[in-house]
# Entry
Amino acid sequence: MDRPRIRLDKKLVDYARELAKEITDQVQEMINQHSTVSVERAVLRLFGVDGVTDDQIPLVNVVVDKIKEWEMLQDGVAKPIVNAMIVLDKNVQEVAEAVVDGLDLRSLPRVSDDKLNLKMQELSRQSLEKIEKISQYRESLLKELGDPPQPYKYLIVATGNIYEDVVQARAAVKQGADIIAVIRSTAQSLLDYVPYGATTEGYGGTYATQENFRIMRQALDDMARKVGRYIRQVNYASGLCMPEIAALAALEGLDILLNDAMYGILFRDINMIRTFTDQYISRLLCAFSGITINTGEDNYLTTADAIEKAHTVTASQLINEQFAIKAGMKPRLMGLGHAFEINPDIEDGLLYEISHAMLARELFANYPIKYMPPTKFMTGNIFKGYAMETLYNLVSIMTGQSIQLLGILTEAIHTPYLHDRYLALVNANYVFNNARHLRQEIAFKENGFIEKRANQVLKEAVNLLEHTRDVGLLKAIEEGQFADISRQRNGGKGLEGVFRKSENYINPIQDELEKRLGVRR
Amino acid sequence: MDRPRIRLDKKLVDYARELAKEITDQVQEMINQHSTVSVERAVLRLFGVDGVTDDQIPLVNVVVDKIKEWEMLQDGVAKPIVNAMIVLDKNVQEVAEAVVDGLDLRSLPRVSDDKLNLKMQELSRQSLEKIEKISQYRESLLKELGDPPQPYKYLIVATGNIYEDVVQARAAVKQGADIIAVIRSTAQSLLDYVPYGATTEGYGGTYATQENFRIMRQALDDMARKVGRYIRQVNYASGLCMPEIAALAALEGLDILLNDAMYGILFRDINMIRTFTDQYISRLLCAFSGITINTGEDNYLTTADAIEKAHTVTASQLINEQFAIKAGMKPRLMGLGHAFEINPDIEDGLLYEISHAMLARELFANYPIKYMPPTKFMTGNIFKGYAMETLYNLVSIMTGQSIQLLGILTEAIHTPYLHDRYLALVNANYVFNNARHLRQEIAFKENGFIEKRANQVLKEAVNLLEHTRDVGLLKAIEEGQFADISRQRNGGKGLEGVFRKSENYINPIQDELEKRLGVRR
Amino acid sequence: MMTDLKNVRPYGDQLGDGAVQLSFTLPIEYGPLARETAKRFCEALGFQDITIATMEDLGENFTFFVIYGKTAVSVDASSIKVVAPKFRKMTREQLDELVQREFNRKIVVVGATIGTDAHTVGLDSILNMKGFHGDYGLERYHAFKVYNMGAQVSPVELIKKVREVDADVILVSQVVTQRNVHIKQLTELMDLLYAEGLREDLLVIVGGPRITHELALELGYDAGFGAGTVPSDVANFIVQELLKKYSH
Amino acid sequence: MMTDLKNVRPYGDQLGDGAVQLSFTLPIEYGPLARETAKRFCEALGFQDITIATMEDLGENFTFFVIYGKTAVSVDASSIKVVAPKFRKMTREQLDELVQREFNRKIVVVGATIGTDAHTVGLDSILNMKGFHGDYGLERYHAFKVYNMGAQVSPVELIKKVREVDADVILVSQVVTQRNVHIKQLTELMDLLYAEGLREDLLVIVGGPRITHELALELGYDAGFGAGTVPSDVANFIVQELLKKYSH
Ligand code: B12
Ligand code: B12
Ligand SMILES: Cc1ncc(COP(=O)(O)O)c(C=O)c1O
Ligand SMILES: Cc1ncc(COP(=O)(O)O)c(C=O)c1O
# Structure
């Protein structure tokens, strides 16, 4: 016995998964009919288009916007670009630059479909081979340096300045961090482009850029060799540029991306179809490049009550799981989320927390699930907050969680100071070590509170999923079934960037990914 | 199931108790042959002698010293004093004052033994009736106000000034304390008298005096009525004046006394015979007046390693238990001690702590055992210390401990500040409430680490007890078997205050107590 | 404890001891020089009896300290005039009745988190039925008609709503305070209210965990409510303040 | 992080921000006046951007605060001369060999916790075989002959022992510092050593969690060792210092 168990109603578990599958099957049909500007930009990025204009607009944005303007986007960005490459005998970057400089692709002659397809496949294969190499290198580094024991200690840096982030990340790794996430600048999720280059000014976080990824990656690999354990790097494939960020992350060897099928819709008011489509492509990329996704179920509990709405976390996890399966992801990459967010004044709140943590653990037994710390009930009493984090860390080691986002004692006050992060590690290092094998030594009472509560939450999740299956996920979101937030299918940000694929639509990267991942549609 | 269980080797448990009984039987024989100046002074105090001389020497000290000087002490102090009362037709206080003023009791005629015995019995009964009334009053107050749930939250105050102590105690009770202990001034345990009156100057603590007891008692009763729960008061029957403090505590209605059969010997270098004799009489008084004793096994772990020497705690608890039984104490008054003192850097240290806590809980299932917080490994990192206290509180509520001396985050720095105590309560209130019924929901693995470790400690305790039985407790202490400290039977402080009882020795209070408690020897 | 308000100083374990706990990080390598620098720093702040309770190596030439010190600094609290929203506490029933009697209509309240701020929980807990800490929200009162616009509302949208529903009161929430973004956003709203000639007719109230009444007044608002505010405080303030306003 | 040593200031999340956390209690009733008084107090210490993170009612007219503030105060660390016992770190084997070679006998050490202080764990961890934190104690060295007198030893007893065993080094421990009792006791010992004409011949070293080298020097001791001392530090200091002494 390597952790305690609870018995879940097996039939109910199967039924819940079946419901989630039906729900996502419906949505996937819609996804298959759509593409988005970010998907197309991701294709260009993977083909090798890089750089920005003098006004700091990424070339990929200029090109996609032009092609859209020329009403050629419904076929996908690949065709006209590759056509130009062949006709003009230029590489993709040169073509993109030419477009920026005024080249009108409509003016070019069309090469044969065969020629076009051959070239597109070649470019896609080259691109994916590059990614494959990168992920193989990371695998081997992980083997060489060794994987730290779970739960991994996950810490955030958020200075706004990538170079200062590096200093703080290095210190955190020395103190024991296993995973470093660079929080993005507040506004980035609503930007319909990916900023460029190294950045030193951010707002509550640091911009996610390819160069920033590279700088942090190098710093973490340096430190990893120094401390002799592999250090994982995290960013966000979330917001309006999911597919592009996933592409850049794959190219720069990131390990984990925050990526949720519904977060953007609910918490950032991004159009549903945009988000569903983007998440699919971004997950294909993650699946292929071995990037773990972390879903955002913790967010449900920052607005809703963590006991009353525990089942929404479970329902969302199951939906995220099915979407991930559709994108060819294996359980080992599915870092489904949950959180320790129950009001600390509740009698036996800890029993609820244990129960909810066990439910997630049992449902997703070998998944690298991600556990989020108390935030909502953290107050300016940093001492009490530190006590809450102690129990949070204990529940994690006791129930066998995988990824532990460490709680920060000043959560209610400011983004973490350097020593706030240190103290978070002091706490986790103490608890994880001091209670290392507790989970092998305890059992929860059969048919006791913990087991019963977990089954009850599961039942409530099934009820929600049943209703969602009946009305459809889009309708359920319109009704406000998730997080008490209602969004309309024709509303939200980024709608203008969604388009219906034509019959002639081609996305060679997607095709190649689907082929290799065995999810060919 | 109201708490988790572990299976102890039943035979070993019985054998351990049998050994402890044999060990204490031997010592009790020696105790029966001795009395001490403090025992005699306690008799006078219970008869009603009060007050100090102009030089602040308690009348009881002057009287006993005189009687000793007159070589009349071997018969006990009661006889000459009561003889004087009858002859001079004075009350006991008047006689004592007369002695201070120079009256030589040798000069008085002797009344008949019958008369003497009658009067002594009368005085003893009056005295015990008074105590009985006081303890009945406390019982009824406890019933009226209600007993808080266990573990009781025990806090110390230690300003040195009884009036300032009252302010701090009141604040602590408001914040949730169930028990208030006034720490004694550092030097008091080695004073061979009990200071007098209200005191405002102490050194790392406040002097234990009858008046200070009264002042604090009144403050606590006031607060108890305000907060609607009974508040217990603690002091120390330890050091050179155990019996007298026990007498004063009984008279002032204290609820708990720190009282250990060996602490004074080992940690204060007090003579063995003195301590053994004093503890017996003080425990008769506690047993009669319903005062819970708290033993000091935690002290073993401040010098020795808490894992290596865990069995010394168990052995001492068993010895304390047998001594207490001999004094007519019921389990409900035996607050045997143990502590959470394992190095926090030890892997699985928490499993050891749980195991040791369970061992104490199982061995003394319905006893009000007292659990002491981390002290030795507390550092200037008050945050880490606060995390340690969180786990300490969790272990307590999880294993069903009775009396919880709350840990103070500044343990390594200074005696508690007002808000240090507050933060201790914030921590305990949070953990106890949030994990209230955890103990009903978990079980420890059968034959797992926790159960095996507990049996191993028990086995080691038995080995130590066996050796102690073989050589005798006095010899074992001389050998340094307990706390690695060696004390000689003819050494130590207070030896000059011990004397062998003559054949005519009478201690009417002791006789009456033994009779009523059914431990007549 | 009876204090001399003229001379208030921190209390550790006796009156006047001036005991304070500090923690901070110095960007200096762990070692004796770091220790001495920390001590000098505390001296420069005016502390004596400085105990470096712990000093820990954060790596990368940073050192963390926990320190206890004593200070002779004291504050004359008797001369402080506290600024806080003024109202006497009436029950919900009393307020509802009062509004019924004096206004004979509902008081119209528009609430929003303005600017880039996306935090709604605080505002919701003042407005929603459920309220906060067992204290019912404004929607539960007969006295109020509440429009809750949610988060990331621009001042222009907010003002549009105010006109549309003929509001008596605006409640704005601001939670994010990094780089003083809240001050920027609150100033923008107030300027627009003046520009639109709406300021006079409205009660404009701001709340949030780092909002103080003092700050609110400085920015031209009628009141500021901070951490731990309960809805009934806000309800009482609104009703009593409007009564004053209309009786003038 | 490379710091300008001339200008060292606390670091929260960026260089020079001067961020400090404080906590303390004021003897004043929980409420707005307490909050304002706390703020003024922090201002008087020289803090700006003061955030009262929490304010809690301790009862009996006491209020507890956790506060974050920023200060412009900085320290010139480049001008600080650190006082610390000086020695270079040699291994136990090297020291044993060195003593064997240079002294050709064992160095005699007498250790004691003096006065009313009953704490022995710290001293024991320097002297006992077992040592501290995996670093062996002086008894483990061939270089030393150790006499550990334990706790509550009076200066007179200690000196008697020193004469008896012809000691080279005295190690005293002082843990309790309440009301500066350690200073009293350390002074008493040093006075007696001078009075007895023994000071010159001996290395006299003091240790304890709140002992600093600076304080030790002030009191006339040769060195002071604080929290976290390992026995090998003390061993190195003793041997190297005695070598210096004898080579003069
Ligand atoms: C929940 C939460 C979120 C949720 C918000 C969900 C939602 N719909 O509200 C999510 C996850 C989306 C979120 C996101 C972010 N958050 Co946030 N979040 C929090 C958190 C954990 C709790 C806030 C909360 O709900 N408190 C409970 C309510 C009841 O308290 P309250 O807001 O103080 O309200 C009370 C009073 O202030 C007052 N009040 C409040 N408003 C009003 C209005 C009126 C009119 C009145 C009268 C009274 C009043 O009454 C209420 C009841 O007493 C806090 C940390 C914490 N524990 O405080 C961080 C925190 C506020 N967030 C923070 C940050 C930085 C962010 C992000 C910018 C992070 C990032 N880089 O992405 C993002 C961006 C959001 C944005 N654009 O604004 C910081 C703010 C730092 C600062 N001082 O500026 C905090 C402090 C966390 C931290 N330490 O970094 N967050
Ligand atoms: C264990 C302990 C006890 C035990 C002592 C057992 C024993 N035989 O030593 C007992 C329970 C008996 C005890 C009693 C008391 N204690 Co006590 N005790 C502690 C405790 C928990 C741990 C101390 C310890 O062992 N530390 C571990 C050792 C290894 O660390 P160290 O002493 O710092 O030693 C290291 C260095 O300082 C240095 N060092 C130390 N000595 C020397 C000497 C030399 C020559 C050198 C080179 C180096 C050196 O090297 C060591 C290794 O690095 C502390 C709290 C704490 N966590 O620190 C309180 C503490 C020290 N005790 C305290 C008090 C007040 C008392 C009492 C007075 C309480 C009372 N009112 O009854 C009594 C009275 C004792 C007396 N007369 O002195 C206070 C002191 C407050 C102050 N600043 O003055 C403390 C801080 C607790 C508190 N917060 O109140 N205590
Ligand atoms: C899935 C997911 N994406 C993104 C974010 C971050 O927010 P933003 O949308 O501002 O990048 C979160 C935050 O918790 C999240 O859970
Ligand atoms: C049984 C017992 N008596 C007394 C004391 C207090 O010490 P002192 O002897 O100084 O009163 C303790 C301290 O832990 C103790 O455990």
About this structure: Residues 80 and 208 of chain A are 29 Å apart (CA to CA). Chain A touches chain D at residues 159, 161, 164, 167-168, 379-383, 410, 412-418 (CB under 8 Å). DSSP finds 20 helices and twelve strands in chain A. The longest helix of chain A spans residues 113-145.
